[in-house]
């Protein structure tokens, strides 16, 4: 009888249920993970990434699961441990996290994004690159504010990049500069990207007049196949030569696009768009979610990051809109300023918002293809901004 | 790495300048690429146009192409519809009726 009682006690003590009472913050994180799962599964907020992140968060905060060991990664950061130690001592998510730490997953995601992106609207209207540049304003506004709030330079740079509205770029930069903030920044970035249809329209109406929103734009010219094939090669050469730190992101983005446009490697293009993209998305989301360990995530910094993220998104939108207004004036009303807000990457959600708002003002307005130009320019712009921040703080 | 507020402003201005510079550079390259493609296309067209009068002679002996029906070749006013959608609808109607598109006259297309 005694043996049975001892065994039962031992099972209870080694179970996660008993350990949960050691640190109630883990329970809070489990509830937060379930809330994120609800947002992803029911409300469809960026489900492809949020579901994985939330599940990684759940796994890592279940006491005794031992799938992720932050102290092991502290050792890697301090050079007292190596990747070999991670393989020997780490759990499943530690091993998957190597891909984040080495910058492999964000770059491979960019390969898939490139294989799915049509740069035609950008090539047809190269001036939209300016809107993509202006919409990076929020990155630097949030960077300044983060410094004011007491973050270090590399941490502020990682927080600022949320304004680029580009998940893989944010993850790559943060994993290099401030890995301790990775979970909070990734969750803020993807949550706000999902909330773009709610965040942007009020700002669009605030920054533009009805007359400006009603403006109809001329049809874009047809882009030849040759131009589409040359574009990724030229962009890679120029951008990487000027900012070598952008090589993983811009290189993979443009390689994926070359697969798509050349038309002779359909199998590779298909793999980059589907199988590879899906596999990497699973690994990336799970391992990013794993970094949200309760004692490191439930801090005042996380709340500050969430607020700064919203600030960054808003100012990026305003930056694009303001330059859009300037272009409207300079061209005598030929550019609808609403397409400026699409410069915040988040392809194609931001372009769709421009289309919806433009059509609300004038039902015969078709801005989608015009907005796709700044939208894809924003992807390049945020990668350039990340390259700059890596050069300065890396 | 802690940085001062003035340094932060400096980095921010520099960062925005780098982004603009890079994308302006790309813009110039794309514009140049577009112009070059346009010039090449125009150069290709030019000899074809020069040979056109020679090709017209045998064409005159060929059986006459059916005359366009009255009412065609006018101005098409599209309201609240994309040209692609309108073209698709007109092509489908012509196909279903078995009548060539140039013999049909579309007065209006309404969503049912």
Overview of the structural elements:
The complex is a heterodimer of chains A (394) and B (112). By secondary structure, chain A is an all-alpha fold. Helices cover 75% and strands 0% of the residues of chain A. In chain A, helix 7 packs across helix 20 (275-290), helix 13 (167-177) packs parallel to helix 24 and helix 18 (247-262) crosses helix 19 (266-273). The termini of chain A are far apart. The relative contact order of chain A is 0.18. The mean pLDDT of chain A is 92. By secondary structure, chain B is an all-alpha fold. Helix content of chain B is 64%, strand content 0%. The longest helix of chain B has 57 residues, at 5-61. Chain B is elongated and about 75 Å long. Mean pLDDT of chain B is 76; it is low at 54-60. Classes of the chains: A mainly alpha (394), B mainly alpha (112). Chain A binds chain B through residues 122-123, 126-127, 129-130, 132-134, 136-137, 139-141, 143-144, 147-148, 152-154, 156, 219, 221, 224, 226-227, 230-231, 234-235, 238-239, 242-243, 363-364, 366, 377, 380-381, 384-385, 388-389, 392-393, and chain B through 1-3, 5, 8-9, 11-16, 18-20, 22-27, 29-31, 33-34, 37, 41, 79-80, 82-83.
Short précis:
The complex is a heterodimer of chains A (394) and B (112). Chain A is mainly alpha-helical and 394 residues long.
């Amino acid at each position: 009888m005694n043996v049975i009682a001892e065994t039962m006690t031992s099972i209870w003590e080694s179970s996660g249920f008993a350990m949960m009472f050691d640190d109630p913050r883990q329970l809070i994180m489990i509830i937060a993970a379930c809330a994120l799962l609800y947002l992803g599964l029911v409300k469809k907020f960026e489900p492809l990434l949020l579901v994985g992140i939330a599940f990684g968060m759940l796994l890592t905060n279940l006491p005794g699961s031992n799938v992720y060991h932050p102290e092991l990664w502290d050792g890697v950061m301090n050079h007292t441990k190596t990747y070999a130690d991670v393989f020997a001592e780490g759990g499943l998510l530690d091993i998957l996290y190597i891909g984040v730490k080495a910058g492999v997953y964000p770059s491979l995601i960019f390969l898939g994004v490139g294989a799915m992106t049509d740069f035609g609207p950008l090539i047809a209207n190269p001036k939209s690159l300016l809107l993509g540049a202006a919409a990076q304003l929020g990155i630097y506004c949030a960077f300044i504010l983060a410094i004011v709030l007491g973050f270090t330079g590399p941490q502020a740079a990682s927080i600022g990049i949320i304004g680029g509205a580009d998940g893989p770029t944010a993850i790559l930069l943060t994993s290099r500069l401030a890995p301790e903030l990775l979970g909070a920044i990734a969750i803020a970035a993807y949550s706000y990207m999902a909330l773009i249809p709610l965040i942007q329209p009020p700002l669009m109406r605030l920054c533009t007049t009805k007359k400006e929103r009603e403006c109809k734009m001329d049809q874009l010219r047809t882009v030849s196949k040759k131009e589409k094939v040359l574009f990724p090669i030229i962009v890679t050469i120029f951008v990487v030569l000027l900012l070598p730190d952008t090589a993983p992101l811009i290189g993979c983005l443009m390689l994926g696009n070359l697969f798509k446009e050349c038309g002779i490697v359909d199998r590779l293009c298909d793999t980059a768009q589907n199988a590879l993209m899906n596999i990497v998305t699973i690994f990336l989301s799970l391992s990013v979610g794993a970094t949200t360990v309760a004692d490191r995530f439930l801090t005042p910094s996380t709340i500050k990051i969430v607020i700064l993220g919203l600030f960054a998104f808003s100012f990026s939108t305003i930056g694009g809109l303001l330059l859009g207004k300037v272009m409207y004036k300079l061209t005598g009303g030929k550019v609808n300023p609403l397409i400026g807000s699409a410069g915040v990457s988040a392809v194609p959600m931001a372009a769709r918002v421009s289309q919806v708002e433009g059509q609300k003002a004038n039902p015969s307005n078709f801005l989608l293809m015009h907005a796709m130009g700044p939208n894809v320019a924003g992807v390049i712009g945020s990668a350039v901004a990340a390259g700059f921040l890596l050069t300065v703080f890396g | 790495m802690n940085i001062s507020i003035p340094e932060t402003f400096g980095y921010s201005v520099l960062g925005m300048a780098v982004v603009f510079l890079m994308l302006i550079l790309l813009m110039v390259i794309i514009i140049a690429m577009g112009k070059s493609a346009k010039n090449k296309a125009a150069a290709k067209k030019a000899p074809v146009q020069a040979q056109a009068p020679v090709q017209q002679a045998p064409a005159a002996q060929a059986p006459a192409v059916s005359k366009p029906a009255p009412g065609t070749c006018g101005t098409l006013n599209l309201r609240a519809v994309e040209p692609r959608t309108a073209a698709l609808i007109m092509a489908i109607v012509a196909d279903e009726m078995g009548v060539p598109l140039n013999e049909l006259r579309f007065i209006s297309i309404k969503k049912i």
